[in-house]
Write a structure and sequence with these properties.
The chain contains six helices and 39 strands. With 725 residues, it is mostly beta strands. The longest helix is centred in the N-terminal third of the chain and has 27 residues.
Length: 725
């Protein structure tokens, strides 16, 4: 590992020195008429448009050109290259686990992350997919509808509130207003079929766009079939020079089976099997463990400039969900309605010839409510006996403000904060088949500050630093008490995760007439160092059956990304994340943890935090040769280092490396019709690897713990796309 860190430091140092030398060279040649200044990248996921080089946060922006060859069956394909972001596809289908700088790492288990992520806020077209309690389901997001993505890797609680250890903002709005209709078909290994129809164009009302996609996957493990129907549509209407209105629709029906985890022996013998009776009885196959999620959302956004210096923006949305699950030997019907909105006022003023101000104040509101009906399970289907009828509600209200001062377009200072109150409302009407009524409410409150400073060294480079707080309350299904506290509806021992983050970083985007002797190129570099301290970290036990708050943790890391894109068509990019993640104070009752040591308590201080690899990264090479217009070839390398699946650091998750390849060719059939053919080979060398794990799995008396979710072996996909303009 020491060698790997030395290599990482050498790479970063080399890139920084090269950037500095190249910037000096460009400065000396400022009169060169062939010099090109790159356009500043604007980040829109910060509650107001900001230039990336002026933002004191770690931000990765992915445009359509960055993701076009990567948009496959799941959105994990899009996010694999982002430093600090670990995305794990648990079964090769819709069930993803997303971690940013360790936030969200606990979400893996029998119930704790089936189809949802934790600790990360996800937006689509500026509207939250994340629920008030911090869970995010990705059911309605079709990767082929995504036009761009912005990933805020810094803790963003001061802007977005609960569960904002990172923010992922997807946009489905086309960047160009061209009128076109596109049909795409893709088939692949293990029964993969994907069909997508996209349309967009300018109308009298404004830019109208829509995507409808149907996909299915037989799965490569037993009990891992999935299918999805996803629809997105929208209208962006510029009603006047000062007012813009957007209407955005999302809908989806997603079905997927869950094969369950394997123990180490099973994984080594046959990773394609499903969990068997050595740990789970009845097995995942016998109870047909699965999810059937149907949801739809409509959102409206309004941006209005009152004056040249004062503007208002507002958003509101309504979402409805109907979810069915075969889970832990019961059948469950969920009904949910989720509503919310925000209101933001922005004021920009020139205070003097050298000093300007941008003031931001706003509020967010989210409310979700609904019922859960628990039925008996018969041969994997819903029985006729209603065991439990529960209401689960959550409300999240937050107020925030931020002041940004800019001096001479070189120095900017941001100071802000946010107050949040998150409340749960739980009631039980039927329990054990008997009519009862019990209720319990609980609220969490927190103020999170933020401060940051940016020094824009020149038009191409900047340095920044920030410090801020964060909050993450227990998600709804994490609040269930263990058996020893069965008299409670909400676990009284759980507390919100409180975090403090320190970060400093460097960003650059350069354009040069000659780079490494290969001609004109664009270069981008992003380096971030962070330190995150948390208290009351929420820890899953027995595979996620219940949770406790435990001790203090420290996470320190370095993120590095560097990309070069030559004008003649060759591009290289590298992304690396190195971190140290430890429990600093952590004792737990040995009975709760299931560790039979004879001692009353187990002390896990100085152990590695489960679920977070200390080193992971990727490298990509893409080539679009000038001599054959339309051809593009890509090779991706991914690496994930060793980590542990338990707090005791006894269950190893082996490191792995993987190579993917892709190719596409675009051609014009006529003046109005173009065609694109493409193909991908994932896991080219047929690597057997652990894609995901269950954190702190149950330890059965007569079997080894099952915690491993094997990743997809080599798989191939190919397709064709036809576009009419």
């Amino acid at each position: 590992m020491n060698t790997a860190y030395r290599i990482l430091i050498c790479l970063i140092s080399s890139c920084c020195i090269a950037d500095a030398l190249n910037a000096q060279s460009l400065k000396e040649k400022k009169n060169d008429s062939t010099k090109v200044t790159l356009k500043d990248i604007t980040v829109s996921a910060l509650r107001q448009p900001e230039k990336n080089l002026e933002v004191p946060l770690a931000v990765t922006v992915l445009g359509l050109r960055d993701i076009q060859l990567k948009r496959g069956y799941g959105i994990d394909d899009i996010l694999q290259t982002v430093p600090g972001v670990l995305v794990q596809n648990r079964s090769g289908n819709q069930d993803l686990r997303i971690t940013i700088r360790g936030f969200g790492a606990r979400g893996a288990g029998e119930r704790s992350n089936a189809g949802t992520s934790r600790g990360i806020r996800v937006l689509v077209d500026g509207i939250p997919e994340t629920e008030p309690d911090g869970r995010t389901a990705l059911d309605m997001i079709n990767p082929l509808s995504i036009q761009s993505a912005e990933i805020l890797r810094s803790n963003s609680s001061a802007l977005f509130g609960n569960a904002s250890g990172g923010v992922i903002s997807f946009s489905t709005i086309p960047k160009e207003p061209d009128t076109k209709l596109t049909f795409q078909s893709q088939i692949g290994s293990y029964g993969l079929q994907q069909y997508t129809l996209q349309a967009q164009g300018m109308t009298d009302l404004g830019l109208l766009y829509a995507t409808i996609g149907r996909s299915s996957f037989d799965g490569w493990r037993a009990q891992s079939q999935s299918d999805a129907l996803q629809i997105s549509a929208g209208l962006v209407h510029q009603s006047s020079a000062r007012t813009k209105v957007g209407v955005h629709l999302l809908a989806g029906n997603v079905n997927y089976q869950i094969p369950g985890p394997l123990n180490l022996t099973q994984y080594q013998q046959d990773p394609s099997m499903s969990a068997d009776t050595s740990t789970f009885n009845p097995t995942f196959i016998q109870r047909n463990e699965r999810r059937n999620n149907t949801s739809g959302r409509i959102g409206i956004t309004v941006d209005h400039a009152l004056t040249e210096t004062l503007s208002l923006s507002a958003m509101t949305y309504l979402q409805s969900k109907f979810l069915q699950r075969s889970e832990r030997n019961t059948f469950r019907d969920f009904t949910r309605y989720h509503m919310g909105g925000n209101f933001i006022m922005k004021s920009s003023n020139q205070l003097s010839s050298s000093l300007s101000s941008m003031f931001l104040i706003g509020m967010d509101y989210q409310y979700q409510d609904g019922a859960i009906l628990f039925y008996n399970l018969i041969n994997g289907n819903r029985g006729n006996t209603l065991r439990t009828n529960k209401r689960e509600g959550a409300q999240n209200m937050g107020f925030f403000l931020q002041e940004e001062l800019m001096l001479d377009d070189k120095f900017s200072l941001i100071v802000g904060g946010r107050y949040d109150k998150i409340s749960y409302f739980n009631e039980i009407y039927i329990d054990g088949g008997q009519s009862v009524f019990t209720s319990q409410d609980m609220s969490y409150e927190r103020f999170t500050p933020k401060a940051g400073i940016t020094w824009r060294m020149n038009e191409d480079m900047s340095l920044y630093a920030n410090v801020g707080g964060g909050i993450e309350v227990p998600a709804g299904n994490e609040t269930d008490p263990p058996a020893s506290l069965s008299s409670f509806i909400i676990n009284p021992l759980l507390k919100p995760i409180e975090s403090t983050s320190f970060e400093m970083g460097y960003k650059s985007q350069l354009s040069t007439n000659a780079w490494l002797g290969l001609g004109a190129a664009e270069l981008k570099t992003d380096i971030a160092l962070y330190s995150i301290s948390t208290i009351n970290d929420i820890i899953p036990y027995a595979g996620g059956r219940f949770y406790f708050s435990a001790g203090k943790t420290e996470r320190m890391g370095l993120e590095f990304s560097h990309s070069i894109r030559w004008n003649h068509g060759l591009s290289l990019s590298l992304s690396l994340t190195a971190s140290k993640n430890m429990y600093t104070e952590y004792t737990i009752d040995s009975i709760v943890d299931g560790v039979n040591t004879g001692a009353s308590f187990v002390d896990y201080a100085n152990k590695d935090i489960a679920g977070i690899p200390s080193l992971f990264g990727s490298a990509q090479v893409k080539y679009a040769p000038e001599f054959l217009k339309g051809l593009q070839i890509g090779v991706d390398y991914r690496y994930c280092g060793h980590y542990y699946a338990d707090d005791a650091n006894t269950l190893d998750v082996d490191p792995f490396a993987m190579v993917d390849c892709s190719i596409s060719y675009d051609m014009n059939i006529s003046d109005d019709i173009s065609m694109r053919v493409f193909g991908r080979v994932m896991n080219l060398f047929h690597e057997t690897y652990m894609s995901g794990v269950w954190i702190n799995p149950e330890r059965p008396r007569f079997a080894s713990p099952a915690y491993i979710e094997p990743g997809l072996p080599r798989n191939i996909a190919a397709g064709i796309s036809l576009t009419w303009k």
